[in-house]
Automatic annotation (TrEMBL), chains A, B:
It comes from Nonomuraea montanisoli. The keyword Secreted does not apply. Keywords: DNA-binding, Transcription, Transcription regulation. The keyword Glycosyltransferase does not apply. Pfam families: LacI, Peripla_BP_3. This is LacI family DNA-binding transcriptional regulator. One of its GO terms (molecular function) is DNA-binding transcription factor activity. PROSITE patterns: HTH_LACI_2.
Amino acid sequence: MTKRADKPITLADVARRAGTSTAVVSYVINNGPRPVAAATRERVLAAAAELGYRPNRIARALRSRTTGVVGLVLADASNPYFGALARHVEQALERRDRLTLIGNAGYSADRQRDLVDRFLAAQVDGLVIVSAEGGDDVTDRAEAAGVPAVYVHHGPSDGRARVVAADNHDAVREAVAHLRGHGHRHIAFLGGAHDAGPVAARRTAWEAAVAGDPWAALLRCDYSRAAADSLTRRLAADDALPRALITATDEQAIGVLSGAWASGVAVPGRLAVISLDGTPESAHTAPALTVTRQPLEAMAEQAVELLSGRDSGAPGVHAPLVIRRSCGCDED
Amino acid sequence: MTKRADKPITLADVARRAGTSTAVVSYVINNGPRPVAAATRERVLAAAAELGYRPNRIARALRSRTTGVVGLVLADASNPYFGALARHVEQALERRDRLTLIGNAGYSADRQRDLVDRFLAAQVDGLVIVSAEGGDDVTDRAEAAGVPAVYVHHGPSDGRARVVAADNHDAVREAVAHLRGHGHRHIAFLGGAHDAGPVAARRTAWEAAVAGDPWAALLRCDYSRAAADSLTRRLAADDALPRALITATDEQAIGVLSGAWASGVAVPGRLAVISLDGTPESAHTAPALTVTRQPLEAMAEQAVELLSGRDSGAPGVHAPLVIRRSCGCDED
DNA sequence: CACTGCTATCTAAACGATTAGATGCGATGA
DNA sequence: TCATCGCATCTAATCGTTTAGATAGCAGTG
């Protein structure tokens, strides 16, 4: 008895049923640019409801030249850090009634460029770029298409691009101060194998914070757990572990923890650790990690805000210190 | 010296420059339904290249009634399991030259329904649903709109919906057999607090696999690390821990590990653990987790295939056993 | 040479919504 | 009573592609 549903309902259908033109229906649907008499509005609303009318966003987009869709270029959704960021960006967009196109660029500048082109062809209203490194020419392409772009976790530093990131200097300073409070003199840092992206900034911040201490060691390895794990085992075997360590990412911190565990090194007794990341996971390691938590939600919100708003000069979002056990504190 | 780029290039621009009609250009661009003389094709291609023409997908979508966009409804992208699944789905779609709209439903059936409606209004060509539980009425809505829908991690069991999932029975049987091989007689199971979704199937599979053993204990807690952690501490304090345990998810397994560590319980010596999940993380816990790895990539591929293809009756994807240390094996 | 049959191309009507301009109508004021 | 004003509404152009139907040119055939 139900109507055949394979013919989608259009504005014209609603207009016919309400006995008006498509224009009025449009005016009613989106409190149009012109007013509509109350009685007519009622009729239209009723007709729309009865027919189950759903505006076709594609048609609307073609005419109004705005799709309500934003492209999100992600390095890798299976990385929990990026995944969480993606989720917050999507939700910030949904709050503004926009949809999110997602794509994984997988750490490749080529693929990132490709994705951006595909998104631009889909007429996105904006681009949010959450990539590990590189991909700086994206700004040009987006600009050429007249589409605003915002980098979130890190971005080109030439000042032309809008970049939202945590205030690393601040965070590292706080972490160093905390470890000093535990009596540590020399605070080592575990960064990435190559200097690039936001971790370079974290290293710089660490260098500033420990300036004047020639014994503060700089360690390096890949951002994977495996790499940090084996580095830690190697250092433990050589008896070359520092007593206090700040890691650039949770992945590395967790690798350090498992490497230390495997080598019989006590954390935080023999080795105190603070990570500059703060994924939810960090609360459930053994021992629980003390971190400076990346303010993902605030960053996502600011990024989306920046997409529409004017150049609010993105002053860097504060990353709070979350004290757990790996630093030497004994809360429970 | 460059052209003002704010006026996007259209088919008509290319046609004018090539001295043809828009029809031929269209035929050339997509090896149209009609042939074009070689010489003309060359001219068109040249003109398009010179102008940097990019077809407007929105206009194309409006006319051809197919957007090349698929909606991906996700419970929560910050969960690494879902994140990885999302990534594989996106990449399987990209291989077929389609774009992915993403949305986080956050374990709420209402939000899921809402998202599906938004996606349908955006005229998606298909829907991939990766949600934890519930949301079964989505099938109806999609069907009414004539859009194919596939559930991935779990879905309604009424047989009307297309569901791609790992073969849990098979996986659990293998895990139980392996633990028995280590000499364990009674193999406990840690499931979710409430019976629902795919974990119910895992529990059922476990019940089948340990049938006849009245001492095989069924434990329950939330899927969070915190819950599993505190449950483990409690059981350890009461000296009520089993000797061999299969957990429904890695999150729980990791919680068990940290709870055991905090309670001085040796894994795998006092408590052997196998998780039915297998996120990348499971390789880097202390000790490394033995798991039946969910075949995420294969599942994603099959889901996307199912979206276009006919009802290939989704026979369940095999989840291989990955032997590490938490089961009692001593590989290194 | 008239006619048929191809091929290569052009013309123009969709797709479904938005919105500027035209229109109709009742109320108001002179 | 007529011109005027405003409001509510209608008409139709438009966004950029796709594609069915019309057309033109040319070769082959009787």
